Amino acid sequence: MANSAMMIGSGPATTPAPRRVGSLKRLARRRSSIALLLCAPLILLIVGLKVYPTFYAMFLSMLDRKMTKFVGLDNFAFLLDRGWHSFGMVVFQSCLFAITAVIMKALVGFILAHLMHNIRGKNQRIWRGLLLVPWVIPLALSTLTWWWLFDPSYSAFNWTLNWLGLDSIPFLGTTWNARISVIAVNVWFGAPFFMIMYLAALKSVPEQLYEAAAIDGATAWQKLIYITLPMMRNIVLITVLYSLIVTFADFDIVRILTNGGPQNSTHLFATFAFNVGIESGNIPRGASVSLFMFPILAALAFFVLRDVLKRSKEVST
Amino acid sequence: MASRKVSRRRFIATTAVASSALVAAPFVRGAFAAGQVSVFFWDHWVPAGNVEMRKQVAAFQEKHKIEVKADFITSQGRQTLLTINAEAQARRGHDIITIGNWNVQDHADKLENVDDVVGQLTSNFGAANAVSNYLGKSKGKWVAVPSSWGTQNKGPAARISMMKQFAGIDVVKMYPAADGAETPEAKAWTNEAMLAAAEACFKAGKPFGIGLGTTADNVDTAGSIFASFGAELVDAKGAIKIKSAEVRQALEYCQKLVKFLPADAQSWDDSSNNRALIAGNSAFIYNPPSAWAVAVRDAPAVAADTWHFPVPSGPKGRFVPHSMNFWAIWQFAQNKKQAKALIEFLMQPANVDARSTAVMGYDLPPYEKMSQSKVWDKIGPPEGSLYHYPVRKQHNAVSHLAHMPAPPEIAVQIYNRGTAPTMLAKLKAGESIEQVIAWGEKELQAFV
Predict the structure, then answer these.
(1) Residues in chain A within 8 Å Cβ distance of B424
(2) Interatomic CA distance for residues B267 and B273, integer angstroms
(3) Set of chain B residues whose Cβ sits within 8 Å of the Cβ of A152
(4) Which DSSP state fits A225?
(5) How far is CA A130 from CA A114, A116, A137, A243, A275, in A?
(6) What does R_g of chain A's alpha carbons equal in angstroms?
(7) Quick check: B214 and B269 in contact, CB under 8 A?
(8) How far away is chain A from the Cα of B111, in angstroms, using its nearest Cα?
């Protein structure tokens, strides 16, 4: 084998020696080097703005209030013990907010993607552009508009309700109204992302599969269950995972709409961490609040990505 | 390019000439010969305040030959707080910072001792108020200089006509814009009188604009009411006192009061009460004169009908909600001497008065003699509306910060979590006093 390779290949005895090139040029010619070089700014950004702050937050979470003494996992123990009265509510609200919002976003995105998919030609581009607007506007700005719509005293929604002869609704004034309001705003903001991802996935499903299914007499429902969903599975999983992580970390909506109220009933991990860490001057405990979901989300990401990888391998073989 | 070789002899000769020239040269005092100092000022709500501050900084530069690098940082989005924390972490930044309320204690171990500056100010201009002493000292030493920049009272601002028409209270007669003894009407301005007025205005469709959210205005109002009953959630030693008779008495009072507050009071933030007054929806709010100042611009008729006066008294007295800004110097600051000189200059009465005048009386100096200035006497419309904005002797009142005198590291948590207004919100939602106390006790256990 080695011999034949030598015969076929360009061994030094049979071919002229290649021109000497500088080691830098050689390095630059390697595709992997160029790839690394092009990715370097992004890697630097991720290391600087994600990896370093994460490890620094871990370090901070193990210090005392004055940040002068190492206290190990005391801050986490506190949250699970004496602090559970408030923190337990934050855990519940964060889970409620993230899970409900992600399910709603996935559903709305899925329906919108199908509607878009069935619009042909130029019109689809127009509708797609319009529906992406909520996702494109900076969240803090659009949430301010929502705040004006929900405002306790001068709500535009309530003005309309009153004009129709109906009573005002305290959108941000009661626990459940406020929780539903912040979830609704998150769904409004995030659904276009799901729509665009699902639309891309739908476009990649081969038409032949649907034609074959139609010949076999499959109903629209059967096509959805047995063709569309399995073909979209990876995209659905990755989108849901990504959105779940981002939604768990949400800050802007609650901060602007309710500031965690009424009666602290809409605090999420991020807003509560800000309240405890920055506003109340206990940065280590704030860091431990913000890191609380990290192991759970990391484990979830591991299993979901493993499943996606496995599925990709199955498809490619 | 040809290179010139420098011989040892030539080098020594040149150096000697240069040194002689330097020594013999006459001393020239440069524009900023006495050094420099960097400072971040809170970006004032009233833009004219920043203009006046810049003018004073320029005057300081001219007089002391010290260059001042001044930044104005807004508190919108907690940017001042984030800046302070970032500088504390990096141990680098401005020499002087504007630092509010609780943050002084959070960073006390990183702040320069300013006993000398405050000592001079108090000996010249009278004692600093109770809140200054509570927040500005650490281990008996001053670590921040009580400043007038953004320091405010949050007492009542009420519509003159509505209070007279619906509640039968003439607030101008009760607190006329003149020095003198406490009027009989002012003596009768008690918690019970406020409750009756709140009920009357509520029935007239102009409820008192007292919010029950977790932001500062709501916390300060609840704190003032609690203090008037002597109700401390946590005492000065850090012990939880939520089950005390005083707290129960305060809650019994508040249980009646919250019924007459707006239906959505639980979701009010610091701007809700301002808008309620300016829009003519509320007869009475607790606020500094910022709501009135906006009304002067946007709703002149409302402004001309608004009067500021002290809080009602309870069994333990009148406790006017007070929010403070300090000027502090980092221990790691490079220009401490210049920083102290700048603070001393800015706290001279003429400068304090000029700034307070520029901001339509919003800023209050926390020193006894300075608060007797004439600045607030004629401000209007209506003329004299702000006469009783500073605490005056005839008020028989004290400046108060919610949850004083609990240890600051505990009080800050109670304050920022909005525990007191949340207790009132629960009462409004229909929970019993026992349920509210039980909830509050669990909440407080996490703070102490």
Answers:
(1) none
(2) 11
(3) 262, 264, 267-268, 272
(4) I
(5) 16, 11, 12, 21, 36
(6) 27
(7) no
(8) 14
Q: Which residues contact A242 (CB under 8 A, 6 or more apart)?
A: none
* Domains of chain B from N-terminus onward: 36-152+324-372 (3.40.190.10), 153-322+386-445 (3.40.190.10)
Contact B428, B212 (CB under 8 A): yes
pLDDT at A171 over 50: yes
| Contacts (Cβ under 8 Å, ≥6 apart) of B241 | B232, B233, B234, B235, B247
Question: A281 vs B106: CB contact, 8 Å cut-off?
Answer: yes
B265 neighbourhood in chain A, CB within 8 Å: 173
**Residue of B78, B215, B422 with shortest CB distance to A263:** B422
* Sequence spans of domains, chain A: 75-316
Length of chain A: 317
Residue of A257, A280, A283, A285 to mutate when probing chain B, most B C-beta within 10 A: A280
Q: Do A86 and B443 touch (CB under 8 A)?
A: yes
Question: Average pLDDT of B83-109?
Answer: 93
Q: Are strands B96-100 and B397-400 parallel, antiparallel or unpaired?
A: unpaired
Q: Out of B81, B418, B446, whose CB is closest to A278? A: B81
Mean pLDDT of chain A: 87
Which residues, including other chains, have CB under 8 Å from residue A200's CB and lie 6 or more apart?
A235
Q: How far apart are CA A214 and CA B67, in angstroms?
A: 82
**How many angstroms separate the CA atoms of A282 and A290, rounded?**
13
Pair of tokens at residue B377? 């006497």
> What's the whole-number average pLDDT of chain B?
92
CA nearest neighbour of A173 among A156, A200, A150, A195:
A150
Cβ-in-10-Å burial (0-12, 13-18, 19+) of B258 comes to buried
At B19 the pLDDT is 57
User: Which residues between 6 and 25 in chain A have a beta carbon less than 8 angstroms from any beta carbon of chain B?
Assistant: none
C-alpha B208/C-alpha B260 separation (Å) is 7
**CA-based torsion, B148, B154, B159, B160: positive or negative:** negative
Q: Region B431-439: what's the mean pLDDT?
A: 96
Pairing outcome for strands B96-100 and B318-329: antiparallel
> Residue written as tokens 């009953």?
B229
A142 beta partners: none
CA distances from B262 to A181, B17, B246 (A): 20, 83, 26
Over residues A182-201, mean pLDDT: 95
**For position A255, what pLDDT does the model report?**
92
Taking the C-alpha atoms of residue A311 and residue B12, their distance in angstroms, rounded to an integer, is: 80
Q: Do B266 and A260 touch (CB under 8 A)?
A: no
pLDDT digits (tens, 9 = 90+) for A125-167: 888 888 889 998 999 999 999 999 998 777 899 999 999 999 8
3-state helix, strand, coil in chain A (%, to 5): 75, 0, 25
Query: In chain B, what percentage of residues exceed pLDDT 90?
Result: 84
Position A155, amino acid: S
ipTM: 0.77
Chain B residues with CB under 8 Å of A259 CB are 213-215, 269
The reply to whether omega before B382 is within 30° of 0 (cis) is yes
- CATH ID of A75-316, from 1.10.1740.10, 1.10.3980.10, 1.10.3720.10, 2.40.50.140: 1.10.3720.10
Tens of pLDDT along A5-30?
A: 334 344 444 555 555 556 777 776 77
Instruction: Mark yes or no for CB contact B78/A170 under 8 Å.
Output: no
Q: Please state, in angstroms and as integers, the Cα–Cα distance from residue B309 to each residue in B43, B275, B383, following that order.
A: 27, 19, 14
Instruction: Check if A66 contacts B (Cβ < 8 Å).
Output: yes
- Name the residue with tokens 């408030």: A86
